[in-house]
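Continuing the series of single-chain predictions for the mutant panel. This is the parent chain; the variants come on the following pages.
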Amino acid sequence: MNWIQVLLIFSIIALLVYLLRSRRSAQSRAWVKVGYVGFVMAGVYAVLRPDDTTVVANWFGVRRGTDLMLYGLIMAFSFTTLSTYLRFKDLELRYARLARAVALAGARAPDER
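Parent structure:
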């Protein structure tokens, strides 16, 4: 198994654990924003200095820097997709609870005939 394969598998597992454990805290949301800014800065650096990405890719056992960037994009896409899915599930649950509360608040007893 290659160095990058171990790193990618570990990263996927770490992202899953992170998303499933601490999605709602302010600290976790702050770390997501810091990670996003770091990812954007790394992308800008990769565009400005593409040869450096090849050097970093070689450290991880990847042949080209573009392949390393692709792996990073796959990880970012997976994180974003799972995070969005979990956020929408939370919103659906909130809306269902709100709809139940509104329905119960406006409920009237049936007329007795």
